[in-house]
Amino acid sequence: MVEPKVTLYSYLNRPVLDRVFFVPFWDCPYQCEFCCVDSLPGKPAGWPDSGEDLLFELLETMSRRYGRRMQLHFYGGEPMLRAGYVEHIARRVRDSPYVSKLVLYTTLRSKSPRQVLEILGSKRLEILVNPDTVNERVLAALQELKGVARLNLLPLTITTGRGAEHEPGYKQDFFQRYMPVGWPGRNCFAKVTGMLVNGPQRTVHTCCMPQSPIVGTFDSSAADIVAQYEAALATVPQALNASCRSSGGAHPCGVCDKFSGYQSQAGPGQNSYTVAEALALA
Ligand code: SF4
Ligand code: SF4
User: Which ligand is nearest to the CA of 37?
Assistant: First the structure.
């Protein structure tokens, strides 16, 4: 389920500004049909962790600017393919005065995150589990991690990656069938996600998805990225909603998917979709 705060801010059209997403690699042993980043099995997790220092600089910059501790959302791919790296990040979260908690997106089918829980404790760790890869062993693990882990049940369809609307078998969800573009559930939700630090491509994005417009690179300063991010939140959602409306698309994320041409297994420089380009689509 979507958090009550996110739902409320979505209806109020206000930015939440309390979280940053981080992905150090996209590799995953599964191949969910809806995978919004088109993660693929087969390769060991091997991308460089080049975004880590920038990530913590952004968390500090935003925490000081907004007067609150920030959440770090860690996803992939399957982060627990490299459990040791997740544990390393957990130790940095534990020791940081700027980060409230780690939110880990996992299938619970790779290594158990019990060690991560030992590092952070149940107050500073939340585990969101993909409902599509659940089996009996995962149900038992969910029970064991009760109070910390829960199924990540999203009411809406994300129309990017393998879930893109041009993919065979695509089905419109409730919002796409019955709600106008621009309403919660069928809008650009960048204001209520968080920016993404995308390690493999060395880019920082307007929302949690790597298909979204780029607000900086790993060569930018954290202060510049935050300034670009705030400017993007004030302009990009409206432009992408308008573009979706005029093109008759199912969801604005489909606009980003199409214009970024994003492929999660590509290296740096593959995606150059900018905020200026997104604004020009309106
Ligand atoms: S949705 Fe998650 S578990 Fe499924 S293929 Fe994508 S990254 Fe892997
Ligand atoms: S429309 Fe683009 S920027 Fe908005 S939430 Fe979707 S992917 Fe992100």
Answer: 1
